[in-house]
Design a protein that fits this description.
The protein has 209 residues and is of the alpha/beta class. It contains four helices and eight strands. Helix 3 links the parallel strand 6 and strand 7. Bound molecules: pyrazine-2-carboxylic acid and zinc ion (ZN).
Amino acid sequence: MFVPEATDVLLVVDVQNDFLPGGALAVVGGDEIVAPCRDLAGRFAHVVLTQDWHPAGHVSFASSHSGQTPFGSVALPDGRSQMLWPDHCVQGSPGAALADGLHIPRAELIIRKGYRRALDSYSAFVEADGRTGTGLAGYLRERGLRRVVVCGLATDFCAGWSAIDAARAGFETWLVTDATRGIDAAGSMARAAQDMKAAGVRPLTLADF
Ligand code: VGL
Ligand code: ZN
């Protein structure tokens, strides 16, 4: 059983049209977690949402690199590897909007991420360079929120990386495994599971609530 406390926050990651079936970067079964995330939000005193929010020509778009295709990767000038995706979650586009069925008007904050053209951000806490903070850890701390429960999309990218960084930032962290779905590109599901375990992220299911 997990009984939400007054200092817990539910972090609902990237439940946006482009990650649902029919969207630009559709996650299989992504539509199945919309209602569970909405219902889960009703159990928490505090809810934070995230939105993947890229400018046109973003570094993570395969279309921004000549000769590249989605799900490949390129080396960036600083040596990091950048996975490539179809154009998705372009700022202000219908695909970037939160899923209609999500409807969590009580949410206190929406963190937008990946808004710098040359820098991606899967995590809601730290951008892909590993050092640019989004401000979320400071926000949670300043408000006295201590435990983070994560749901949303995608398990092996934004939801998983957000959970890992929450744990690394010192928050007790859980992932609701049946309120998330993965992309599973190039072994990413197995890697995310391993990394979450190593970071101390604990699993929960909807039945635990
Ligand atoms: C995501 C790939 C690219 C996600 C965002 O929300 O998991 N994945 N951008
Ligand atoms: Zn993205």
